[in-house]
What we know:
By secondary structure, the protein is an alpha+beta fold. It has ten helices and 29 strands.
Amino acid sequence: MSVSVDVVRGVRIPLSPGVTLGADLFRPAGAGPVPAVVSVLPYRRDVLGGAGCWATLTRFAAAGYAVVLVDPRGLGSSDGRPRAPFDPAEADDGVAAVEWAAAQPWCSGPVGMWGFSWGAALALRTAARGPAPLRAVVSLMGFLDPERDFVHPGGVRGGLGALGVWGAGTLVNQLLPPLADHHDPAEQRRWRDRIEWDDPYLVDVARHPAGHPVWRSRTIDAGAITVPTLSVGGWRDMFCDAVVRIHAGVRGPRALVMGPWMHSPPDDAPDEPIDATALAVRWWDRWLGGGRAPEPPPVTLYVQGFTPGWRSLAALPSPEPVAVLAGGGSADADPTAGTLSGLWGIPNGGFGRPLDQHEDDAGSVAVTGAPLPAPLLVLGRPLVTLTGVTGRVVVKLADVDPAGVSTVVTGTVVAAPGGTVTLDPTCYRFAAGHRLRVVVSDAAFPRVWPAGAPCRLDVRDLVLRLPVAVDAGSPVPVERPVPGPDWVSDTPRWEITRDLIGQRVTVVVGDTLRADLPGGHTIAQDACIRASVRRDDPGAADLHATTTAEVRLVTGEHVVVRVELMLTELVSAATGAVSVDGATVAVRTWDLSEAGRGDEGGEQERTGAGREDGVVSGDRGPVPAR
């Protein structure tokens, strides 16, 4: 029997005197007080972020929960100046939303939090603060350390992911006007102030290079989380290691699900999708609904490689690593290495799985073992001990089949190896007759920015130690996703081109989409992020991103936002332009260079300090309707 859901849009949650958060409320129709589920969404509830989770939140409500979807401070319909990305104070929004929900007459008291990616990290950060009504968390592909897990992988300057894909996308969200209640004077004031005075998140990222002390202040302490926590991650996701660390660190009841996914919700994954929404509902039923659902298996994971499949375990094992391969070698480092590893560590919506990387292996130090006499199951974090290597390194474990095809299994980026390098965890069964290969380079392009000059890699000694498991638990069935509404048409883009004369390699990612948004608005968006590097001149690397979003409001307005990002040896800048019905509303440019920037802090850091120039046109009132 289906349950109808009432949706109330434009709810206001008090944060501090004169500052409120905008939210939407989903409730089972006709229900009395029920537990609540809160999600603070850093990607705007009225645009693609909200549309993407609308079906999930509706299912939560139909299952008997009051669901609150919140814009954080300084974004969408919420008041205030935006905080720096991943600032610890973002938990203030989560705490306020949890405590507000618990105090409403439609809430029976217990509250859960839920989120994907940054939204999951925000839920974890809130849980670490310990608001009394919060009783459970569901974290889908969350993270703990924004620098090392995302912005600057392993402490090495980030590339296409943080600045290109994420930076351009979040700038579009900042510049788009309010879609719900578009003509409301308060909404117009928030938007006009924001596009005139606030810096985008990518300015903060560019201002704080790898190793900057501000990043240590933005980590999340999983050990401070005592409420039941369900962590869901992907072996191919950029937050694979972070999700396993979350599960290991929380001190309350916990469960872990690891699939073969890249950075996409498990319900929408192209490989082995599961009904993660149903998993979350059972978690709420267990910990918010008075234990009316059984506790799930402590660990559910997908075995990749030979004889793949889902397994359940009583705990995540930690077998003692066994030395299985040794060697060494030298090579001229190839700054284009990494392009064939797929879109490793880059938010990509699920596409971009690893390709045959034998050409990357040829420009690296590659140590390859003999054919395996029997299948070999690896479950955990491989260890690679290096002797004679200084400076940053990229270390990968590959599966080489009898035809010589080399496929990345796992890897890591390390700013300073210090002897032993720990690779990201994996669950992978190598087939008999396949060979293990360890690949050492200084490049993971376009995930990290290339080193400044060509170098020689000399690995005197290399030892690979693997956490070899006897088995990976018992086979377990999984639920497949429930078909959702067909709200988006999306054509992804991924290209790798090689200029054989100029020795330049270029990677292009992006998509063209059209989507129906909450409230009846439509959006058409075209994003293209291009990164290139020369094999003989890595210092000449560049990144160029353009995103154009066109929104047609139900009230008739045609809004166009265009964002452009350029990073070269000579230019580091971002530009944003907004027009409504063909009339220019704003054009702004931000300087993204690190030169001349000291240790900034406080509000100055987020209110125009990174702006090179800016022109805002139009009055401060609402844009008139047609």
